Amino acid sequence: MKFKNKIKININGKKLTFNKNDSLFKLIKKLKIPINKVAIELNKKIIDKKKVNKIKLKSNDKIEIVHFIGGG
Questions:
Q1: What's the CATH code of the domain at 22?
Q2: pTM score, two decimals?
Q3: CA atoms of 42 and 72, how far apart (whole Å)
Q4: 14 is in which domain, residue-wise?
């Protein structure tokens, strides 16, 4: 089955199908998000960007990604 190794996660309110056991870092790269310009929340906990490569995604994870915007 194609879906055996897939999970569904929620990113900023949208459902996305992703590979089981892939890292949060791989997701960030796939979405082409500049990691140094965002804050990442996983299941209501702020993530240390130094650890994103070690965090494995699980089914029904809820991820919020917020971009920093300069202003004055």
A1: 3.10.20.30
A2: 0.83
A3: 29
A4: 2-67
Contact 47, 41 (CB under 8 A): yes
Does the pLDDT value for residue 20 go beyond 70?
A: yes
d(CA 5, CA 25): 18
Which letter does DSSP use for residue 24 in this model? H
C-alpha separations of 4 from 1, 61, 62 in Å: 6, 17, 20
Number of compact structural domains in the chain: 1
Please give the mean pLDDT across all residues of the chain. Answer: 89
Question: How far is it, in rounded angstroms, from Cα 1 to Cα 55?
Answer: 25
Q: Which amino acid is at 44?
A: K
